[in-house]
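Sharing a chain and its predicted structure for anyone who wants a worked example. Both blocks are below, sequence first, tokens second.
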Amino acid sequence: MEVTLGDPTYSVSYYATAQDQIDNNPIATPEAYQNVVSPVQEIFVTVFGPDGCPAVTSFLISVEANPTINLPDPLIACDDNNNGFYDNFDLTSKDAELLGGQVDVSIRYYETLADANAGDPADQLLSPYENIVPFVQTIYARLENDVPPGVNACFSVVPLELRVESLPLGVDTATFQDPLVACDFDGDGFEVFDLTQNNLAALGANAPLSDYLVSYHITQGDADLGINAISDPGAYTNTSTPIQEVFVRVENFVTGCGRVTPFDLEVQPPADLSAGPFEMVLCDDQVGGSLPDDGISTFNLTLNDPIITGGDPTFTVVYYASAQDQIDDLPIADPTDYQNVVNPQDIYVTVLTSGGCGAETTLTLRVLPNPSPVTPTPLVVCDGQGDPVIDFDPEDGLSTFILTDKDAEIIGGEPNVSVLYYETLEDAQAGIAGTELASPYANTTAFSQVVYARVTKDVPPATLGCYSIVELELVVSPLPVAQGLPEDLYYCVVDNGGVGVFDLTQNDPLILGDLDPAIYAVLYFRTLTEAQNGVNPIGNPTLFASTTSPQTVYAGLITLDTGCYTPPQQDPVTLEVDLSFELYVKEGAFAGDPDPYMICDNTAPSDGLAAFTLIPNAGSPTDLDDQAQLLVDQILQDQDPSVYVLTFHETLSDAELGVGNLPDVYTNITNPQVIYARVSNLLDPNDEPICYDVAEVLLAVEQLPPMTLADEYRICVDAQGNAIMEEFGAVSPPTLETGLPAEGFTFLWSLNGTILPNEVGPSLVALAPGAYTVLVTELASGCALETAVTVTPASPPLEYNVRLLNGAFAGEHVIEATATGLGTYQFSLDGGNLQDSGVFNNVTPGTHQVTITNVEGCGSITVDIGVVDYPRFVTPNNDGFNDTWNIIGLADYDPAARIYIFDRYGKLLKQLSPTGAGWDGTYKGNPLPSSDYWFRIEYTEEDIPKAFTGHFTLKR
């Protein structure tokens, strides 16, 4: 454009050398020509006009150097919120590093490479710059030569990495000491601090620790820049007092980022414990298993905290059980619940300031003794016997109590103590003046109520007014109530003189009822006045001698443990007294002791029971009337039987009550047996059943020794009734054995009512069936006993029959056997098990034996019977099985029967006898082939001629 001045009609050619211009050898690609001479080369130009006329010229080309590229280090910013963005990048801070000393070079920064290459000043980045890519972003620096206007400036582009690094993590606030305290024991306000105590807390969770450096600084500025660190942080003396602020910097070696945290150094003086040593006093308690008198109490030591610290809440008080524990820093685990081990005891105390500055003192624990009251017995009053204004109802369980009556018992002689009473345990423990009970005190809970006696030391005044509390039970004892009324008592005596000795306590059960006699007692009195006043009771009521008949006695009821007494009550109108009774002396009766009453067993064989005649009766005489009269005489003796009535009773209770009279003839229920004879005096009907006497009567039954006779025996007999021996079972004929010796006894045997004169021994062989009796008499006692036994006959089968129910050739064969005779019979087939039925089903063809047996062992009979049938095949091969053919069982059934064998064409091959060997499958000595063959049988069954035909198979 400059050569042609923009005229498109001109053409231009460029030549590298003058010779090329002469030779017309132009530069082929002038638009992309690379110089061959540096730094200045002349280019030759030929310009052709429209008319083809050339013009020549030349110009110089030169190559200027681009600015030198110095690769910069990343521009790093430290981010305090760890989000990867930073809004204060100072890009120009990198200019000097990029220029590296070059002059006449300008620098601009761009976000992209394209923008940097374009070099438009409008697109350049300005400082401060905020990155748009978190953590790491690359921007570009354009270094451009400064040139005059109109001259293309050479430039270079270099990348610059912006990096956002995270600040180190903050301190561990849980362990970071702020303030860091030093104890000022000399009081000058200055101490040496070991700042490195905060190293680990300052590093916090940063890892790995080897990438971090901890330094301490006096000013914030030094700490921010990481300069002027305290040279010996382990032994730094504060420069201002009592508080000085210093700074800890934690710097990451890798990133160079550091976090600065301020904290205080505080110089603290220890607590002022000049008011000590201290003392804590308690009364002896029973907490934690301690006893009320062991000098051990449970202390809440922390109650002393405000006293020891002077009320400063910043101080911490630590308690130790011993000086060694204080040295070893082994404090009492729970100072709010500490039980002393000796009395007194020194507790060692350390008081710590908020910075841990300790001061030491002692606390003496002292346990004062409590009073030692005695737990009192209940204070008992009887219902209705208190203040009549209050205690007007003798049954409501409410009365009045003089509480002070128990003072002496509770104090138990201990000096310098006083007693006050309270309605509740809480009131007694509080001991507030005005809440104590006045005496007399009216109970509010019926019958039983507990109040509380507070026993307090008072002379000399106890430091804490130590006290003990015991329960006092107030008991309103109800007046005993008689459960019934007494009854008149009678004393029976023969030759009555009007005076008797009475057991008054016979009325105790009536008056006491279900009351426990261990708790309540009945008192007896001679006069009503004494009974009403409860004085002069009869000393020995079990042996009270009356003075008149009748005589009145009065009773009262007392509760033994309380002494509460209920007197007899007199009706003001009728003047009748409820708890009173009369004593009567009556004419008595006498029952003599009789001899034992012994008789022979007269009711059942040798069972020890017999009918005793107790009282003879002319209207119903018995063989024992004489013995009975002797019994009556021995009991009544010379008493008139019309006045003194004799009765017999099974039990002593019945006899004493006069009930359950036995009949005149009585059968004992055990042997021997004691019954009771009662003699009652009926001189005055009103005396019955009062005066009587009872005697024991022994009833005894003379028993013969037991006999061994059975009730029934079996004898085996033949058809003529003669005795035969048994086949099995009991011996036949049987021996009837009494089991008694011949000496000392006589024996009389009978058969069917006929005496057997020759049978006089203790046993008998029964040769005939029938009813036998034996009368045995014991010579010593004369007692006799008759026993009956039965001998029953049994025999073998006397008549019997065995037959085939379905006849010969029936297919399914059934044998039936029957028998009659003396006894029962069972049946067996071929020696098998006996059965009650004589029918045998599914019997195989052939000869069988049926046995008929008497079940009592008196004989049997065996009968042979043939079951007739034919075999369905024959195999004459001489193997020992089915080698011949014959009709099975026919030899026993009809040995005269005839058997014919034919071939299939009706040719007679063989005639057989049922008793023969059978057909061997030959004809005239020659074996016949396998085939079916026919037979005919002519036989007699139950005297009737019969014939049967069939066929069988011959197999070779």
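Comments welcome. The longest helix spans residues 625-636.
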